[in-house]
C-alpha cells in the first residue's frame, strides 16, 4: 500500500491529498481528497484522457459542467466525462471536502487544459 502523502497546493486556499491505494489500482484510476477553502474555486478546465467522479463529503459544492451549474450537498455526486469543461467551487463559509475519482488512460497532472485560472497558471 502507498502511504498517504500531501501534494503541496499551488494556492493556499486549495489543498489536495492522495489516498492510500496499491500501484496496480493507480494505473487507470486515481483517488484524491480535495479541500476547497471558503470563497474559492478550482480552474475551469478539461481533461483529454480522463473522466472524473466527484463525491461531496462535507459542505456544499457548486459544480459547473460545460454551461450547466448545479449544487451538490453531502453524499451527493456527479460525473464529468472526457473533454468536458468543469469547475468546482465553494461559495460557503466553511471548507468543502470532495473525493475525486479519476478514470482514464493517462492520469498525469499535465492532462489539464485550463480555460480560466484564478491563480495565474498557464497551459
Question: Which secondary structure elements does this structure contain, and how are they paired or packed?
Answer:
Layout: E1 5-7, E2 14-18, E3 29-36, E4 40-41, E5 44-46, E6 50-58, E7 61-65, E8 68-72, E9 77-80, E10 86-90, E11 96-104, E12 113-116
Number of strands: 12
For the terminal residues, how far apart are their CA atoms?
A: 32 Å
Tell me the CATH architecture.
Sandwich
Helix content: under 10%
Radius of gyration: 14 Å
In DSSP terms, counting alpha (H) and pi (I) runs of 4 or more, how many helices? 0
Mean pLDDT: 84
Describe the structure.
It is a single chain. The protein has 123 residues and is an all-beta fold. The chain has no helices and twelve strands. The protein has a single domain, classed as Jelly Rolls, CATH 2.60.120. Helices cover 0% and strands 50% of the residues. The strands form three sheets. Strands 1-2-3-11-6-9 form a six-stranded antiparallel sheet, with no helix packed on it. It starts with a strand and ends in a 7-residue tail after the last strand.
Brief description of this entry?
The protein has strands at residues 5-7, 14-18, 29-36, 40-41, 44-46, 50-58, 61-65, 68-72, 77-80, 86-90, 96-104, 113-116. It has 123 residues and is an all-beta fold.
What labels would you give this structure?
single chain; 123 residues; mainly beta; Jelly Rolls; 6-stranded antiparallel β-sheet
Amino acid at each position: 500500500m502507498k502511504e498517504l502523502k500531501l501534494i503541496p497546493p499551488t494556492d493556499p486556499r486549495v489543498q489536495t491529498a492522495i489516498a492510500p491505494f496499491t500501484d496496480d489500482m493507480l494505473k487507470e484510476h486515481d483517488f484524491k481528497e480535495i479541500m476547497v477553502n471558503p470563497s474559492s474555486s478550482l480552474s475551469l478546465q478539461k481533461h483529454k484522457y480522463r473522466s472524473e467522479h466527484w463525491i461531496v463529503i462535507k459542505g456544499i459544492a457548486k459544480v459547473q459542467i460545460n454551461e450547466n451549474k448545479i449544487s451538490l450537498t453531502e453524499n451527493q455526486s456527479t460525473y464529468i466525462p472526457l473533454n468536458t469543461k468543469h469547475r468546482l467551487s465553494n461559495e460557503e463559509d466553511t471548507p468543502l471536502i470532495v473525493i475525486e475519482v479519476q478514470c482514464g488512460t493517462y492520469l498525469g497532472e499535465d492532462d489539464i487544459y485550463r480555460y480560466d485560472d484564478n491563480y495565474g497558471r498557464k497551459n
